[in-house]
Amino acid sequence: MKNNTGFTLVEMMVVIGIVAILALITVPNIISWRPKAALSGAARILKADLELAKSRAIRDNATVTVTFDTASGTYRIIDNNGSAIKSRRLTSLNISGTTFAGNTVTFDRRGRPSSSGDIDLTNTSGTVKIVISLLGRVQVAS
After folding, report:
1. 142 and 57 in contact (C-beta within 8 Å)?
2. Average pLDDT of 104-131?
3. What 3-state class would DSSP assign to 48?
4. Confidence band (pLDDT; 50, 70, 90) for 47?
5. Which carries the bigger pLDDT value, residue 51 or residue 28?
């Protein structure tokens, strides 16, 4: 007897068909997942930068200001001397608005904001709010 090893053409076609069906099922889910991931990632970045501004105000015993430009989707963190600590543009989403006067929040030397409020981030998958309390707590709220 002859011992043949390997796959037949029919077996290979069945495997390729199964892989194609699985790809048709999973690809739309992966595509719809990306905007949600981008939005939650940007929210985490903004939260971290607000925490940075707060900690710099405490560390330097001075005020630190965060200014949001909703038209361009950017924000700047500026120390009390007017020097930029950080400037960032959030890609693939918008800063749709803030409840802060003049789109600006200032952390005092104890890390407390000038007022409580929130920042809305939006893209095609929805909206996420970053909430800053009067005590300086920064939270991501869906």
Report:
1. no
2. 94
3. helix
4. very high
5. 51
User: In the 8-state DSSP scheme, what is residue 115?
Assistant: S
Identify the three-state secondary structure at position 68.
strand
pLDDT band with cut points at 50, 70 and 90 for residue 64: very high
Q: What is the C-alpha radius of gyration for the chain, rounded to an integer number of angstroms?
A: 24
**b/e burial code for range 12-40 (CB count within 10 A of at least 16 → b):** eeeeeeeeeeeeeeeeeeeeeeeeeebbb
pTM: 0.79
Domains of the chain, first to last? 9-141 (3.55.40.10)
CA triple 7-10-11, angle to 5 deg: 45
